[in-house]
Amino acid sequence: MSKVILHIGTHKTGTTTIQDTFALNRNLLSGKGLVFPEIGKTNGQHGLVMDWIKLPEAYHLDTTAQAAWTKLVREHARSDRTVLISTEELSRGNPNSRVDMRKLRDMLSEFDEVKVVCFLRNQISFLQSIYLQVVKSGVNIHWGNFFEGAASSKMATGLFLDYNDLKDYLETAFSPEEIFFFSYEREARESHGIIGRMMTECGLPQFAGALKDLPAGNSNVSPDPLGTWVVAHVLGGKPFKSWLLETARVALDDIGKDGMKTTIFTKDEYQRLKDVFGPLNRQFQDRNGGVEIGDFPKEDNVVFRDSLTPAYWVQLSRRLVDKI
């Protein structure tokens, strides 16, 4: 039987780590009947959505996405192989820039089995990670506008925050039996983490421990949240500087926050997201037979944005003067 697995993210749930790990182990996996195809210039097969979504140049293919999908079907749909496609761009929800799921499902109809795998993260951690990724990429974004837009529209940079909407979108083309949701937080704590879950979904759980680890550890790890906000505030749209992030974090340590986790949210923003998305998450879980979305992070021993006192800014200024 032929099978195609679509790993669709979501964003900031270890997707780059999954893609880099499976690319590193491509030959080993091929010997076990699992194909992780080389498509485009990146380890994730992001170019497969370029007919629907405007992508960075690095993701572009030399052909159309439809031609690339057709080639995949022709080469593997009449085999006993499993094909894994991994791109978080498949889970984008902007109505004006998202994949036509019905057309995609139709293109995959020659495979004997189709499976959609999606990791979900609690919205507080998810929204924060989205913001950090945008700022790290050099885009100047106003946090207040970003937060208000996300809380009211339940989307951020075109990504679903209400997972009921994501489920509805997928079910326009795929049957509920073809869609598998997992809690990112829960899977990350399990043996072999999210890689282990992906290997299980690919039918190879016994080989999870045989995969080579990435030399530098997990890929695309988010920086310190509050430190990143401080850096974005200080730079005012100028290119991101890693040394300034380190200085911002050290200044927190100077005022007695050594080793404490930070968050970009104020306490009121934190509570607002819990009030908005808590009921929606329970609705989603009821619709999916109890599939869990990770708990919101605990507020203990966390430095909130409204915890930054004048003493912090004075200490940061002193650290910056020392750099001059």
Oligomer: single chain
Biggest sheet statistics = 5 strands, parallel
User: Pairing-aware structural class of the strands and helices?
Assistant: alpha/beta
On the 0 to 100 scale, the average pLDDT is 94
Q: Determine the N-to-C terminus distance.
A: 65 Å
What's the CATH topology label of the largest domain? Answer: Rossmann fold
Helix content: 40-55%
Lateral arrangement of strands in the main beta sheet? 2-3-1-4-7
According to DSSP, the number of beta strands is 9
Gyration radius, rounded = 21 Å
Second rung of CATH, namely the architecture of the largest domain? 3-Layer(aba) Sandwich
For the record, the count of structural domains works out to 2
Q: Which segments are poorly predicted (pLDDT under 50) over 5 or more consecutive residues?
A: none
Specify the overall morphology.
Answer: globular
> For the record, what CATH class of the largest domain applies?
Alpha Beta
| SSE run | EHHEHEHEHHEEHEHHHHEHEH
Domain Sulfotransferase: 5-205
Protein name: Sulfotransferase domain-containing protein
InterPro entries: P-loop_NTPase, Sulfotransferase_dom
Keywords: Plasmid
Task: Give a verbal description of the structure.
- This protein has helices at 15-24, 26-31, 65-76, 101-107, 123-136, 143-153, 163-170, 184-189, 193-201, 225-235, 242-257, 267-287, 310-323, and strands spanning 3-7, 34-35, 82-86, 113-120, 155-156, 159-160, 179-183, 261-262, 302-303.
- It has 2 domains: 3-130 and 159-207, Rossmann fold (3-Layer(aba) Sandwich), CATH 3.40.50; 225-322, no CATH class.
- Helix 5 runs parallel beside helix 10, helix 10 packs across helix 11 and helix 11 packs across helix 13.
- The chain is globular and about 65 Å long.
- The chain has 13 helices and 9 strands.
- The strands form 3 sheets. The chain has a 5-stranded parallel β-sheet with strand order 2-3-1-4-7. A two-stranded antiparallel ribbon has the order 5-6. The protein has a two-stranded parallel ribbon with strand order 8-9.
- It is an alpha/beta fold and 324 residues long.
- Strand 2, helix 3 (65-76) and strand 3 (82-86) form a beta-alpha-beta unit.
- 45% of the residues lie in helices and 10% in strands.
